[in-house]
Amino acid sequence: MQRNNLRTHLRRRKPLKPGLLSLIALAAVGGYAVVLLLVSLLSFITSKAAPDNTVISVFTSLALFVGAYTGGYISAKHRHKNGLLMGLCCGLFMFLVILVIGLFISGKSEGFGAPAKFFITIIASGIGGVAGVNSTTFR
Question: What is the spatial distance between Cα 125 and Cα 15, in angstroms, rounded to a whole number?
Answer without folding.
Answer: 27
